[in-house]
Design brief:
This protein has 302 residues and is an alpha/beta fold. The two termini are 39 Å apart. The chain is built from 11 helices and 8 strands. Helix 3 runs parallel beside helix 4. It has a 6-stranded parallel β-sheet with strand order 1-8-7-6-5-4. It has a two-stranded parallel ribbon with strand order 2-3. The protein is globular.
């Protein structure tokens, strides 16, 4: 073989080994390689490899080195499946991430309205979420205050939200559970009351409870406010959970403009030991796309 050809082929082989992740499993002959950060995939993300069965998908995640899992729709799943998934997570030393704790109002005023009937329904849903959390071993649940009330000043709306969240915190505190408030961006979710991290920070300080913290969704906040690392640093003492998605596109890290290597390095240096939910789609379909997701997270894991 000519020297030039040998060097070219060797370089290609080295590139492939560096960029294509190993698929671990009971038949792979390879040991698990846990991620340093607690990245949490969701159902459907690795369906091409694992199949449609939720338990098989969970098993695949564990085999790939994920130590956490999140499921927005967990509350809607059959109790028997919740119990099976909770047992699997416990047996495999995986943490359960967030699930959505209540019915989100996308177009009508909700907690910001101060309506006592809406408040009661919300608090009832928080109470039922406690039982879900117990079945699956969850600590965190997502809360979105809902649409703004255009007929009230923002100050009045904020006072209504704080009052209702204080009541919810009283339900959660005895169980050592935490609702995490998620600000949403104006482009994907126009008209939502909660949109910025400083606003979420102010509300959490006002509620003043370990049961009420911030879910900092990096994708949403890149669109809404940018300035990611300084805002994360400023909000740090009220942040309990992160979610991930690159922008534009809301796909895996490396497909957009966010420097996730730097963001994750900062979060890791801060000593964060919580969960980072992978709340995004795959940029490419099928097994190839799932390998790309695994490779992306290997490349940005600090």
């Amino acid at each position: 073989m000519k020297r030039r050809t040998f060097i070219r082929n060797s370089s290609l082989a080295a590139f492939a080994s560096a960029t294509i992740p190993g698929i671990y499993g009971k038949d792979s002959g390879m040991p698990p390689n846990p991620f340093r950060l607690n990245f949490a995939p969701h159902l459907g993300m690795f369906q091409a490899h694992a199949g449609k069965d939720p338990m098989d998908q969970l098993r695949f995640m564990a085999e790939q080195g994920f130590r956490a899992f999140e499921d927005n729709e967990m509350k809607k799943r059959p109790v028997s499946l919740q119990e099976k998934m909770g047992q699997f997570l416990s047996d495999n030393k995986m943490q359960m991430g967030v699930f959505v704790a209540h019915t989100i109002s996308w177009s009508k005023p909700h907690l910001a309205s101060g309506n006592p009937e809406i408040k009661k329904v919300f608090l009832d849903e928080i109470s039922t979420s406690v039982e879900v959390a117990k079945r699956i071993g969850a600590t965190w649940m997502t809360v979105v205050p809902g649409h703004v009330d255009m007929k009230q000043s923002m100050a009045f709306q904020t006072s209504h939200v704080v009052e209702t969240l204080r009541a919810a915190a009283e339900i959660l505190e005895p169980h050592q559970l935490t609702m995490v408030l998620e600000p949403l961006n104006f482009r994907d979710h126009p008209g939502q009351f909660l949109s910025e991290s400083p606003q979420a920070y102010e509300i959490c300080k006002a509620v003043n409870s370990p049961a009420c913290k911030i879910l900092f969704d990096i994708y949403h906040q890149q669109i809404q406010e940018g300035n990611l690392i300084p805002n994360i640093e400023t909000c740090w003492d009220e942040i309990a959970y992160f979610q991930i998605g690159d922008n534009p596109g809301r796909k895996e890290p490396g497909t957009g403009e966010i420097n996730y290597s730097n963001v994750f390095r900062f979060i890791h240096r801060q000593g964060y030991s919580g969960i980072l939910g992978m709340e995004h789609g795959n940029s490419t379909a099928g097994k190839e796309g799932e390998l790309a997701v695994l490779n992306a997270y290997r490349s940005v894991d600090p």
